[in-house]
Amino acid sequence: MNSRQHIFDAIRRAQLTPIDHPSIDYSKWTVEGQSLLMDFQSMVENVGGLYSHLGQISELELLIKTHYPAAVNIISTVSLNNINAIPMDPSTDPHLLADVELIVMEASLGIAENGSVWLQDPLIRVLPFITQHLIVVLQGSRVVANMNDAYSIISTEDFGYGVFVSGPSKTADIEQSLVIGAHGALSTRIVIT
Amino acid sequence: MNHAQTTKAFFKDPQRVGWHDNALWYVRSKRDKAANQVKDWEYLKDAGAAIKQHTLAHLDKYLQNFEDNAQQNGVHVHWATDAQEHNQIVHRILAQKGVTRIVKSKSMLTEECGLNPYLESNGIEVIDTDLGERIVQLAKESPSHIVMPAIHKKKEEIDTLFQEHLHTAPCGGDPLYLTREARKHLREKFLNAEAAITGVNFAIADNGAIVVCTNEGNADMGVQLTDLHIACMGIEKVIPSMEDLGVFIRLLARSATGQPITTYTSHFIRPKPNATMHIVIVDNGRTRQMARSDFKNSLHCIRCGACMNTCPIYRRSGGHSYDATIPGPIGSILSPGIDLKKYSSLPFASTLCGSCTEVCPVRINIHDQLYKWRQIISVDGNFPIGKKVSMKITGYILARPRL
Ligand code: SF4
Q1: Is 0.90 topped by the overall pTM?
Q2: Which of B250, B330, B359, B365 to mutate to test the pocket of ligand 1 (most atoms within 8 A of CB)?
């Protein structure tokens, strides 16, 4: 008998009493009068992220020049006019991205309860991880309250890979001391437009 | 093993016991703060528990759906009844591609199966990439905690360890310096790896996704830089849908470390172009635990570690004293299910204060189950555990072949 069958037989032999999926009242977690954007900002900062609010997207270049003056190897999915970004080709060998200093990419959702942003099918999946610094551009109207709200949107979409990113990579594996910058980005900035 | 004996080494240094106790209590308090910030946290726990109960009762259906959907996504699905078969499957996949260097992110299952020594004995270099796991790997130890593998280690010890293995400068245990050095060391490993192995926090029946949560970004650094991803999971990791996932993601990090979410929550559905993805689904005693009505809901566990952080015994005895992959209160329910004779002292390593049950995000009645194991072990009140009891245990097992 093959292992798969063996496991299924053992599960069926256990004969657990059938029980319905709970009907969950998602409205229980709704916070009345919540300012999504304000809560989102305070959570982004809480998880060690940086936060900027731009009047218009054209101010992005100034922001990059101001906050990342030394960055040379830049990749951006948002078009930049006066900054020399490396053109991105999905077939690029990801190993060649090891020296990328700054990546600018767009998120389709932000989550107020945890300051995370949803990156769906990045052109090259390693981008938000391998870069030294990450900028994520998000429309302020795309912030939802919590993960339940986020998944009710995401579950209707078709994608191969997606990741919630909340702040910069971090670890507390040495005596519980929080160190920002483990294997992924050393800093993560959310730019709201 | 006998827990009263295995704690002795840890007890030799009372200062270390106090330090360990405080470190874990600090994590427990962060958990409380995070839980209090969520409106209707208790209802969130109810939802998590009810989804798990439903899923386990229909596990065959959900595993079948998961497999169908994963295969449609172009993912290879394998089944292993035990640790040995799991290790053989993983090795076969690697050997077919001639892989000799792999990076691994946190997976308690592969720890349970002894995958690292198995692969190493077959000439494959295995690098654990979670910082805590890399520390214990270099120290030739096992993780003492499921979320914070090196929680038992002092920073000065890590300093010495890194000097020896990574040739770092002495730094008095500076966490920032040591973490940066580890980042450099592991970057090189990521860039040179030929395959990545990850664990699985949740598997989604509805769309065949596997979800992996990390703070360091090590799972993705491994997977996205190699063409071969092997994900290893126990049969109990499957949940019905993405909507259900929302409930568990909200519970997991808050219960584990007091964070509102881990830095990265990655959803792997289809392999990237020109890459291959495999999922190995493992039983290794889980269906046996499922058949024990008093203990079946220990399979609801989402491995947050909250029951360890709060346990007055775990905090003062350290994870290694449990001599098992999963230590602490939940481990003391799971381990006797694997080897009752060996682990008969673990259900007694508890004050039955119920703090574990209180914090558990999926409402496992941990302390009740510890008490139930005690009743089985000490059938008619033979304390302390001695020869007579182990005879009785053997008798119990023989009388109940399904156990
Ligand atoms: S038993 Fe509950 S508290 Fe303990 S690790 Fe599992 S889910 Fe967390």
Answers
A1: yes
A2: B330
